[in-house]
Amino acid sequence: MLSSRLLQSLLVSALAVSASLSPASASCSLSFGKGGLSFGKGGSTIRDGDVVTATVKFNPAQQQQGKTPTQNQTPATPGQPCKVEVSAPGLTFGRKVFTFDPQDPSTHEQSVTCRTDAGSAPGKNGATIPVTVTFKPQSGQTPTTQVVQRQVVTAGKCSGWGDPHLSTLDGVAFDFQKAGVFRLFESRNFQVQVFQEKCAPTIKQGERSPSCYQGVSVAFAGSVVRFFLQNGQIVVGKGTSGLQWLLVEKLKAGEGYRVFTAVDHATYVDVTKGVWINNYAYLNVALQVSAYFKDASVNGLMGNWNEDKKDDVVDNDKLATTYGSPLTDNLFTCLNDGCGRFMRGPELKDDLARGLPNTMELLHQGFVPVEDHTIQLRAFEPKLPPLPKRRVLQADDPAALAVQADAAARAPQLCAAAINSVPLCHKYVANRGFFISTVCVPDASLVGDLAVAENTKLSYLRECRRELDSRIEANTTGTAGTLELLSDRLALKFGDLSTCERDCNGRGDCLAAGCHCNAGFTGYACEIQY
């Protein structure tokens, strides 16, 4: 497995570490046998999703005269305090080094907060994997080890693309075409709301027109940040004076943001801009959620995340009634204390988790932090444009009808070619057909614009990178599995600001997730002309 330093996040279950000293006389002879590390009431399995306080215990005893250390014991320098480093791949500790003094009882029992790392490949959900805990004296003595078990809970992911095509946390795909403000996801004190309007290029279809995201608000533990499209540009505002519970980062290249929760960087919201015909801008939303937020409180348009596709509601009217909010009273319009009615403050679990290391380097590559003080405190007032009094039939505009018919005829082949041109990502995006048949082809046909293929390809690349990075950061694979993941990431040239495949053949810009091709081109390296 990778070292826990490279990969961190996704939280643990009750942990009590018992590091006993074998019989010793003014020495630090360490013995970590069966039961040296325990969880809860003596168990040996850690479950993803919880944060707990662990106890490291030191039990000094008198060494029998003339007795030498056993195989599991490591003699230390007599009379010296014993410094021990505790580490385990896939586990994150609030601190790693503990100093025990045989002469000072106050050092014999010490506490530390801990958790497991982030979510993992779907195939491992519910499985237990062995974790080797190493107790390493800093004096150069031989380390001792113990094997415990980690129960893996897969990270959840959901998204809304285009107009919008939703994929729930349990993997159900459907279209949600209502206009208004809606609760996309909620778990305890974490909530995401979206504002969507009838898409301008199709609004003349009236109620039959699809809808497009124009705003996204993210709230957690008393902090609110919001994104809104104004004049085709993403504008950022905060709903609370402080954003101490959220971390906002901006794409280094391209128009988009990533919002992390301060307690768990394995949970984040991606907001990126797309453009349709007539320069009409819309937002895409993708949410990655770790087991930290998986419980019975999960609700919203993205489902309940209970591993059962059958009970995900897809009826647009029912969803709008259940998860809709007034246009004048929501996470876009509230300020400071006024936002309190939409969310709860931090819980004890959040306070504990916030003090743990949360680097997760891969998830921050390609982004730069946005300082809290640079984000203006401001509210946005969602407004819905009036629908036309009568439906204007496409047949009223023969030229538009001809363009639409041409796009509809060419879209299936172009969309498939664009998505299939991307290597390796079929290993990480289980619903590749969703991007081709549900997102790309219908949208290109609807607006008569084949540029939709390029927008969809970029969304597919970003989805691929999210899943690949999540699996690496989860730290649940052995050495061979980890090397394969890292090799694929290198081959796809995912990085901070990668050198893209063949430099996009001079036909596009290189973003952190891959090529964003110029008009008239698509494909992994902008090799497909249309």
Automatic annotation (TrEMBL):
Q: Where is the composition biased (Low complexity)?
A: 60-75
According to its UniProt entry, this protein's organism is Pythium insidiosum
**UniProt keyword Iron present:** no
Keyword field: Disulfide bond, Glycoprotein, Signal
Q: Keyword Metal-binding: yes or no? A: no
Q: Where does this protein have compositionally biased stretches of type Polar residues? A: 104-114
Q: Which domain of life is it from?
A: Eukaryota
Q: InterPro entries annotated for this entry?
A: EGF, Mucin_vWF_Thrombospondin_sf, VWF_type-D
User: Which parts of the sequence are annotated with region: Disordered?
Assistant: 60-81, 102-126
Sequence ranges assigned to domain VWFD in this UniProt record: 156-340
> Mind telling me what this protein is named?
VWFD domain-containing protein
- Leader sequence residues: 1-26
Q: Which Pfam families match?
A: VWD
